[in-house]
Amino acid sequence: MTTQSTEQVIRETIDRVLTRVNALSEPGPGYTRPSYSDLETLAHAVIRDEAEALGLAVTTDAAGNLLARMEGQDRSAPALHVGSHLDTVGQGGAYDGQAGVAAGLALAAALKAEGQVPPVDLVVIVTRAEESVWFPASYLGSRGHLGRLTRADLEVARADTGRTLADHMTAQGLDPEAALQAAPPRPAHFIEFHIEQGPVLDQAQEPFAIVRGVRGGLRYRNAQIHGTWAHSGGAPRDQRADAVFAFADLVTALDAEWGRRLDAGEDLAVTFGRVDAASPVHAMAKVPGELEFCIDIRSEDDAVLDAMDGVLKDMIAGIETARPGIRFELGAQSRSRPAALSAGLGDWIAEGATARGEAPRRMLSGGGHDAAAFAAAGWDSVMVFIRNWDGSHCPEEGMDPADLARGVAALHAAVLSGAALPEMP
Amino acid sequence: MTTQSTEQVIRETIDRVLTRVNALSEPGPGYTRPSYSDLETLAHAVIRDEAEALGLAVTTDAAGNLLARMEGQDRSAPALHVGSHLDTVGQGGAYDGQAGVAAGLALAAALKAEGQVPPVDLVVIVTRAEESVWFPASYLGSRGHLGRLTRADLEVARADTGRTLADHMTAQGLDPEAALQAAPPRPAHFIEFHIEQGPVLDQAQEPFAIVRGVRGGLRYRNAQIHGTWAHSGGAPRDQRADAVFAFADLVTALDAEWGRRLDAGEDLAVTFGRVDAASPVHAMAKVPGELEFCIDIRSEDDAVLDAMDGVLKDMIAGIETARPGIRFELGAQSRSRPAALSAGLGDWIAEGATARGEAPRRMLSGGGHDAAAFAAAGWDSVMVFIRNWDGSHCPEEGMDPADLARGVAALHAAVLSGAALPEMP
């Protein structure tokens, strides 16, 4: 039974944590805390402060992730981890990551305020480096916790500084070699609250949902089109190698393919997040000879990602043939695998919601999240999506803390329901 | 009759002028002399030095254009002006503009070396501010000479400094008000040698050609597409307002329209010289909510430009309907009228070429040039195109000075042929 005062503790904790964390940012608009930056470390220190005030035992792992543990009734059972990350994209929003950490602390605060002991250990977990816009590699922080970092990961350069992950970890007082050697912890339960990053719940007027899976991604972060510079009035159409027209061919062809595959029932999303034909050499009176772009293809089905990589390359070959002088260079591919999340853990939370008169839908996550890394490592891992609007990864990113509080209250009800947590997978 | 030593003087003058002018540039790659910059003024001083060494009478007009006069046999007839400009685009090439100035000086040097007096006054003319990439307005320097500057022109801001034309003129020791008040000079003859800025002559293996007209231009220099920022994995396809996909729709639609109009015999060129979806807010994991671009549409037929402006706006309306949330903002339009050049003056030069065993083709200029401004002001104006390769408006811009020398020799032969210059239009 969630009392009125419990709801108040949940809500106050959420508001306070969001305010304290978001006070730490590079100058706006929006919020900017790069991965493995001083600002990310300061945000972790806020959570340490909050957790210690609740009497939780705080540790950090070799990769700099923070774990704040409240002892449960059964100390030998796999612990229930609740958390997310505190780094942001550049000029990001107030909730992506932060909301999931606030949720974990709010649950712990509610249990403490009531004098309740959870059935198993509750661990508020704060990961590092979830936003791969900084280090172009997926889930570096959570993979660090899971003993799944590779030596290649340590050499990845941060986009803004050009310095390696190892370098940035060292600058934050961490030992990259120790993170590399870290033994995988025993798999446990992991729940991540996160804004939806899409309009589905907002349009359906639903406060939160259970996430059944996380899309995987296929990315070319530094693709280029090489053509031929020419005068905009002087070059005949059939002798141009115009990088912008070639790019438009690709976008239009992939747009049509995307529509066809959705119609066929496949899951797919295609985004060109960055297009750059705006160097000092580009000018109105010049046929553009160069264009840089990135492409992000996502699906819940790895086979669709494989197929789309082939389609992309076939399309490029076709454009190169149709436009002599045009040459695409896709550059390095990065890939994250789709992850099915725990139906059992989702049901367990949903039962808590049902007890409170809520009926959260099951849905898919378009974005990649730490929960996918935990699932891939054999953890019993699930997400709760919170309604959001005005986009995500942007200063306008909207969320009502009351919606997050309703989700946390559902989890709180599940924790106190006496219902058994799922068996580990 | 052009002797071997005359050809040598022409060639040596061309080489020396190109070398001296191109020594004046911002750091490379390529050559950068902004309009109404110190570097442009220094380049004009080189021509003053060269012209005075030939004994020509050098003056400048209120807009800072340079005129170097060699007296002719008939001092009362309209003078024969030969020249071009010395400003460049950013990171431009070694010949655009420079070649036309070198040609004028080479003709004067050859006549001086031979002790010949031209039938009418020969004026080597060096204009200012032809490259509208700096001040977004067409033919500012030559319009200044022609008494056609407007007060609005004086307020145009230079793209790199943000300071007005009036400001930059003043900084170069000029009086903008005097330029504004300048009386139009008596119309005369104007010949501009210029690289082709296209591959036609190079592919046909022809050294030079007579230009029968200059395409006009319809431009939107600062167009924008506004959409909605969203997460690249989270936003369903049918609810996105993706600025990049909207842009690709426009490019693809205009590409098809361009092909249809060429097939129908119309003259048209379409270029998106600059595309910018690469701000700090743009990122791989974001559906792009903003894109900036410029569009440059050219034709020898003003009616085609008018029609294309309508087509462009209809296409935009269609895209906005098909993609809710997308809004185009074309911004200010700038326009230059197509110009028919002087068939009579072209024939007069061609006869000089014929006497030397050359058969220059007649062709169209895709790029706008000062010759169009002179033609618009009632001058007897024509251009000679020189074969070029590897593009123009770029560091790689190629031209063989020997080709330019062959064109100048043709003009030299015309000057000495005794054939009358055309009547003024």
Walkthrough of the structure:
Two copies of one chain form a homodimer. The radius of gyration of chain A is 23 Å and the shape is elongated. The mean pLDDT of chain A is 95. The longest helix of chain A has 21 residues, at 243-263. Chain A is 37% helix and 21% strand. Chain A has helices at 4-22, 38-53, 98-114, 140-145, 151-154, 165-171, 176-181, 200-204, 243-263, 302-322, 343-355, 370-376, 401-415, and strands spanning 57-60, 66-70, 80-85, 122-127, 189-195, 208-214, 216-226, 230-231, 269-277, 286-287, 290-299, 327-329, 333-336, 339-340, 361-365, 380-386. In chain A, the strands form three sheets. In chain A, strands 1, 2, 3, 4, 5, 6, 14, 15 and 16 form a nine-stranded mixed β-sheet that branches. In chain A, strands 7, 9, 11, 12 and 13 form a five-stranded antiparallel β-sheet that branches. In chain A, strands 8-10 form a two-stranded antiparallel sheet. In chain A, helix 1 (4-22) packs antiparallel against helix 2 (38-53), helix 1 packs across helix 13 and helix 11 (343-355) crosses helix 13. The first copy, chain A, contains 13 helices and 16 strands. At the A-B interface, strand 7, strand 8, helix 9, strand 9 and strand 10 of A face strand 7, strand 8, helix 9, strand 9 and strand 10 of B.
